[in-house]
């Protein structure tokens, strides 16, 4: 009986750790999905609200009810377009440039700041962006709020992506899906609340719970990474870099902490160009459409005002982003240049529509 009971105890012992491991896996998966969602949420909302942000001069105090209706355009107007005096591309620049600067300077010393303070700063900047834009009475102040959203998104992305090195690699796909979900939920929530009659100010203030979810996901939901990844940061970094650097790059020696020389960095950079150039082309075409051409595509004599049509454009675009960023487990496309070319073709088609409207060839009536 003792041997039998001993075998029974031995057979039942592995089950609780297995259950704990599965529970930790799902907590980390949900945690990184929420981090991706909350991190990009303010960034997406500012792009969706770009037309409203730049309409302060025409809507004093930003307190009026949303979109009383399309304003008829005089026939003798010198322009067929219904545009703000400042293009929505100004919001794009305020939303992109700070993030770009953070990512550019992060390798110089951001790693010396612990993760927790970085997450706190990211959450506070996100909350500050909603408050500043909501209570703003000028375009300049609103753009400062957009800058705060950009700082939050850029700092959070650098922080959370580097944090994935301490966890199983599956969390990267969950993070990617969460960022896609941020695009869809952010654009859809802004569209839905304003379409329901809520003012842009109250819509932005209702989103202050998102930074709270960001902080709760990091401090309360994520588990300690050590039991999940015994190899630690060095092993994860080596595994992550190996497929990208290729055979030309110098091999790193175990236990060597010295940095790469300029020649070695250039070798690594050249091996990454096959990934960098298609991404540059895709993002250029993508934002040229979203923040340049969408403002010009205005269907008159419809039940939707210009601002409402712009929000619908953003929501439909973000729905596609969510589908693409959640497709990692379904399919993998290795020919990234093909996707870049498809994006450029989309840009050309939209440009032809905008040019036709400009010349009066394809009026949107």
TrEMBL record:
Mode of membrane association: Multi-pass membrane protein
Subcellular location: Endomembrane system; Lysosome membrane
Main location: membrane
Record field: transmembrane: 118-136, 143-166, 172-191, 203-221, 272-289
Alphabetical GO biological process terms: lysosomal lumen acidification
Ranges annotated as biased composition (Basic and acidic residues): 1-10
Pfam families reported for this sequence: CLN3 (PF02487)
Keywords attached to this entry: Lysosome, Membrane, Transmembrane, Transmembrane helix, Transport
Disordered: annotated segments: 1-20
Gene Ontology, cellular component aspect: endomembrane system; lysosomal membrane
InterPro entries: Battenin_disease_Cln3, Battenin_disease_Cln3_subgr, MFS_trans_sf
SUPFAM superfamilies the UniProt entry points to: MFS general substrate transporter
Similarity annotation: Belongs to the battenin family.
PANTHER family in UniProt: BATTENIN (PTHR10981:SF0)
Protein name listed in UniProt: Battenin
Organism, scientific name: Prolemur simus (Greater bamboo lemur)
């Amino acid at each position: 009986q003792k041997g039998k009971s001993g075998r029974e105890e031995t057979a039942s012992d592995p089950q609780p750790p297995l259950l704990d491991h599965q529970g930790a896996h799902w907590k980390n998966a949900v945690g990184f999905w929420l981090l991706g969602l909350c991190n990009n949420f303010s960034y997406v909302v500012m792009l969706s609200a770009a037309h409203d942000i730049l309409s302060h001069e025409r809507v004093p105090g930003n307190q009026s009810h949303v979109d009383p209706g399309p304003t008829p355009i005089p026939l003798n107007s010198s322009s067929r377009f219904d545009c703000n005096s400042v293009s929505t591309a100004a919001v794009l620049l305020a939303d992109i440039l700070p993030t770009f600067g953070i990512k550019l300077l992060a390798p110089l010393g951001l790693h010396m700041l612990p993760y927790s303070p970085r997450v706190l700063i990211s959450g506070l900047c996100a909350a500050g962006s909603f408050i500043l834009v909501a209570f703003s009475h000028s375009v300049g102040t609103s753009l400062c709020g957009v800058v705060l959203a950009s700082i939050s998104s850029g700092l959070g992305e650098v922080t959370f992506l580097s944090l994935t090195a301490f966890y199983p690699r599956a969390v990267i796909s969950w993070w990617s899906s969460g960022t896609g979900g941020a695009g869809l939920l952010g654009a859809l929530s802004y569209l839905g609340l304003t379409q329901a009659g809520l003012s842009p100010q109250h819509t932005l203030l209702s989103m202050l719970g998102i930074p709270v979810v960001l902080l709760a996901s990091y401090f309360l939901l994520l588990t300690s990474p050590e039991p999940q990844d015994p190899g630690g940061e060095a092993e994860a970094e080596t595994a992550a870099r190996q497929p990208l650097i290729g055979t030309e790059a110098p091999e790193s020696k175990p236990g060597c902490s010295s940095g790469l020389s300029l020649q070695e960095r250039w070798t690594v950079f050249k091996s990454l160009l096959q990934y960098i150039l298609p991404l540059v082309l895709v993002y250029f075409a993508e934002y040229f459409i979203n923040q340049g051409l969408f403002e010009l595509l205005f269907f008159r004599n419809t039940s939707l005002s210009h601002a409402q049509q712009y929000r619908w454009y953003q929501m439909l675009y973000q729905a596609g982003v969510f589908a693409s960023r959640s497709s990692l487990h379904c399919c993998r496309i290795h020919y990234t240049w093909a996707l870049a070319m498809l994006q450029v073709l989309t840009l050309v088609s939209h440009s032809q529509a905008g040019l036709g409207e400009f010349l009066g060839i394809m009026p949107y009536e």
